[in-house]
User: What shape does this take?
Amino acid sequence: MPVYEYRCLGCGEEFELFLLGVSEEPRCPACGSTDLRKMVSVPGQAASGCGSSTSGFS
Ligand SMILES: [Zn+2]
Assistant: This one.
């Protein structure tokens, strides 16, 4: 079940959508715009493990 993350270029709203079919065009739930940018989410890579903080090396 693919879940895609979108960001509206119109109002900056970020939301997730289930893509049930390619015939349906995703819309922003906030403003209804179809001018969206699809963001690729990689599940399992950001939440697993403990090596995400790389800024604390002084
Ligand atoms: Zn919007």
Observations:
- The chain has a mean pLDDT of 78.
- The beta strands are 3-8, 14-18, 36-39.
